[in-house]
Specification:
The protein is of the alpha/beta class. About 40% of the residues lie in helices and about 20% in strands. The protein contains ten helices and eight strands. The protein has an eight-stranded mixed beta sheet with strand order 1-4-3-2-5-6-8-7, sandwiched between helices. Helix 7 links the parallel strand 5 (about 115-125) and strand 6. Helix 1 packs across helix 5 (about 80-90). The N and C termini lie far apart (about 40 Å).
């Protein structure tokens, strides 16, 4: 994407009423005043709150919002030029139950209260395979502790990825902390039991992986407390 395109999307994001772009300082000092108040202040209802972390172009946030009008969704990513597409689509389709938040994932526990979130989706994260990159892996023990903090009990965590490494690494960690594994499969399109929300929504990158013959893995668990 050219720099002109990026700048255009950044400017357009500023006009979208479904995009929230706090500064890091606002988040860590609690100046945003949305922590604990997302449903009341943003969605104006008490429906379950669902996050998509590292939402990319926002296809999953939008697809889930379309399929679940009785839930509220927030797609979170630091790359605003990417989720511009999802935000624009949500506005065009007048979806009242989805927002996009531009911030770092590691700040998630600054943005949401304990038990404020019902579900977390992580879709096609960078597996960060090299050992020195472990701290950036979105299901490492530090991140799982943050998710556990903001999720209500039992709290649902979903991971959909083309990386067998990421799938196996996460599954091992979850079993180690006593999470209840509800579903885990190495090929969601190669069996008849995959949840519809896993096979009916495909991201831009997922379509590319499928064209390359890659298998898509998925796991779902009660993360608990």
């Amino acid at each position: 994407m050219g720099s002109k395109n990026k700048l255009k999307r950044f400017r357009e994001n500023e006009t979208f009423d479904n995009v929230i772009q706090p500064t890091r300082e606002e988040v860590v000092t609690n100046a945003l005043k949305l922590k604990g108040n997302w449903n009341r202040e943003v969605f104006k209802n008490d429906n379950p709150l669902v996050l998509e972390l590292g939402c990319g172009k926002g296809e999953y946030s939008v697809g889930l919002a379309q399929a679940n009008p009785d839930k509220n969704f927030i797609g979170i990513d630091i790359k605003g030029a990417r989720f511009w597409r999802g935000a624009k689509t949500a506005l065009e389709e007048q979806l009242p139950n989805v927002r996009f938040l531009r911030t770092q994932i590691e700040l998630v526990d600054y943005l949401f209260n304990a038990d404020e979130v019902s579900e977390i989706w992580i879709t096609f994260p960078d597996p960060q395979i090299k050992y020195k990159r472990t701290k950036h892996r979105m299901t490492n023990p530090v991140f799982l502790a943050k998710y556990r903090k903001i999720l209500g009990d039992p709290g649902l965590l979903h991971l959909k990825t083309d990386s067998e490494f990421m799938h196996g690494y996460t599954l091992g960690l979850l079993q180690g902390i006593g999470a209840e594994i509800l579903y885990a499969h190495h090929d969601v399109y190669g069996n008849d039991y995959s949840p519809k929300e896993v096979t009916s929504i495909q991201t831009y990158y997922e379509k590319q992986y499928l064209e390359q013959g890659k298998k898509i893995t998925y796991l779902k668990c009660h993360l608990g407390k």
